[in-house]
Amino acid sequence: MEKNLVNAITSVPYPGWTTERLTSRMVHLGCGAFHRAHQALYTHHVLEQTDSDWGFCEVNLMLNDASLIENLKKQSMRYTVAEKGQEEIRLKIIGSMKEGMHPLIDGVQAIIEKMADPDVAIISLTITEKGYCTDAVTGRLDQNNELIIKDIANPAVPRSAIGYITAALRLRFERSLPAVTILSCDNVRENGHVAREAVLGLARLQDRKLAQWIESQVTFPCTMVDRIVPAATPETLAEIAQQLGVADPCAIACEPFRQWVIEDNFVNGRPNWDLAGAQFVDDVVPFEMMKLRMLNGAHSFLAYLGYLGGYAHISDTMTNADYRRAVYALMLNEQAPTLSMPEDIDLMAYADKLLERFTNPALKHQTWQIAMDGSQKLPQRMIDSIEWHLLRGSDYRHLALGVAGWMRYISGVDEQGQPIDVRDPLKETFVAIFAKYGQSVEVVKELLAIESIFGKKLVNNREFVDNVTKAYQNLFNVGARQAVAAL
Ligand code: NAI
Ligand code: CS2
Questions:
Q1: What is the pTM of this model?
Q2: Pocket residues: Cβ below 6 A from ligand 2
Q3: Ligand at shortest distance from the CA of 72
Q4: What pLDDT, in 10s, does the model give residues 249-267?
Q5: What residues contact residue 470 under an 8 Å CB cut-off, 6+ apart?
């Protein structure tokens, strides 16, 4: 028999329970890198400390890949998390997943039925920013989204995560079952509110009574989620296999740090994640803003300007003193002032900790990975803050260079004339703009006119357009490293 995580002797102890102990009280949509190292791990630590039976049914909806769910099933839904500090590596075998499903394995209806199961109390999500099918500026359901168009036409066989949730809520409503909590764990500003707008937006197009039931019964708490979890690579998997004593294709490496701040608004119970270090608060929004602007805004700055400067990983950018200085100034001078935090939060200490986390050389977090989907990330990471500065007349030169870096990056050609593999839902729009204007400064105004990223006002703000145009031109004149140094 082939050796795997379940039948081999490993260097790390197995959880002291089997999947029999668990009930699928949570269905998670988007079993990717992050969920395995975050929500599933928090739940595992609760299971270690209590007699809880809260477990996950893991669902991946993307039709191009069922392999992770298949591999998890082969390992009785167990897998390894490797927490990698600067020097030490700590392995944990996680035991909070009960079962796994995929439309290609189980069919769409079985997944909707599972989400409507009376035992299910939480549907949690890490489906990436684009998974919400909303306009990032308004937060409203995007009825021109290609999956939403399909879901409006055929609600019983949905394609989008929002369509699946709406279909499952319909069954719960029709069967008079208890409502559930929809728990977004994505890096989206006011993620619970966005999830609610998206689901209600779709439900309203289908059935007013269903929409009213959702509005009054279903809760959508906001959450701030944090842990740097790069996509697994063959190298990280080989390193983990060596330590573990057996190959685990579902293993994932991450940093030691983790944080989870959750609005305590659950309609049908929840695990005591506080036992594993989560914080339950009344208002998560300030924490989300802090993380999105200081951590993610800094990440995107380093991703675009780092990639252009020839750095493959975030930790590589941090070896350049100019990038280090610039990203620290971005956090403290241009992002921190835009925040209103509870008194006990020290933003300088937060920024110091971020520098330390970004420096961790054991994490091979690719600048290319973070650069992905910029159209979905820029509004909450940079544009909100730029608007804040424009209102007050304060300095935002790092943010302007960050936006220009994004424009230079999505041109699709790097500083050596090599192609860049740009991944973004708006890629076709970008290609059309660059095809028309080449890399000339004309593209700046064209890109700023994309409302779903920049809203309506910025393209008409002369000062802003000038600043981004100068920064963009400068990137061509001197290159990213010099432009960052000149800040
Ligand atoms: P991943 O690529 O490993 O997983 C993404 C998951 O989302 C996959 O399961 C995929 O099937 C699903 N997905 C993608 N597009 C979808 C769509 N349109 N509809 C439904 N499902 C879709 O990415 P990872 O690292 O797990 O990150 C996922 C999200 O988690 C991020 O976009 C972010 O919002 C959040 N997050 C990630 C962190 C990280 O460091 N990786 C940390 C904090 C939050
Ligand atoms: C990153 C985030 O990929 C990205 O866009 O900025 O996934 C980041 O690693 C996490 O938010 C850290 O919690």
A1: 0.97
A2: 187, 226-228, 295-296, 299, 369-370, 377
A3: 1
A4: 999 999 999 999 999 999 9
A5: none
